Amino acid sequence: MRLNLGSGSKPKDGYLNVDLDGWPGVDEIVDLNVLPWPWEDDSVESVFAQDSLEHLCPLGRSMGQMNIIAIIQEIWRILLPGGVAELIVPSTDGRGAFMDPTHVTYWNANTFLYFLGMENGRELNYPQFIVPGLNFGVKAHRENETECVWVVARIKKPVGDEEDGRESTESGDSEGTGEDELRQPDGESG
User: Fold this and answer.
1) What is the domain range of residue 127?
2) For residue 82, which of 22, 104, 148, 159 is within the disulfide window of CB 3.0 to 4.6 Å?
3) Which residues pair with 79 in a beta bridge?
């Protein structure tokens, strides 16, 4: 199963399109603010979320940035080992993160370091993804017209004995997707 979380009016072919509202193309209406999400542990091969995660507060608004940890833990829970998450969020490095009053969490490229085992070499109690191959990683995409910046994170849940949070990036297109670069956001702030 492949999930497009917060699909809104932009369903993706080949994905189960999930949203809180019944937009055309939404396959399943789910309130992602309610944990646990309705999918079983280790049951999803791919999670895609663009301009949606920053709207979620499953722990409640008063918990602020702690909601990010809960969101990432839930993505980790449902992903199969070897499963991939592609997450696109507005970055605090541009206007997009703060201009939408419905945003309840704030992200930037460094946010993902806590989930990639790179946080100053300290042991962390967060899920530790890996970033294999040239078509994976965390990068910023700037749109000059709107002065918005998005973080595009493409990360993988480790399989078996893969290092938790770290893997060589010299292997090229390790997943066989044929993509040489990370996907660019659609250009809307969510």
Assistant:
1) 2-156
2) 159
3) 44
Residue 97 lies in a domain: yes
What is the domain-level CATH number for residue 92?
3.40.50.150
The whole model's pTM is what?
0.82
| 22 in a structural domain | yes
Residue 182 falls within a domain, yes or no?
Answer: no
Based on the structure, what is the number of domains in the chain?
1
- Residue 121 CB-half CA count within 13 A: 0
Contacts of 68-77 with C-beta under 8 Å, sequence gap 24+, read 68/105, 68/107, 68/111, 69/126, 70/35, 71/105, 72/115, 72/126, 72/127, 73/126, 73/127, 74/35, 74/36, 74/37, 75/47, 75/127, 76/127, 76/129, 76/157, 77/36, 77/41, 77/42
Q: Residue 53 and residue 104: Cα distance in Å, rounded?
A: 9
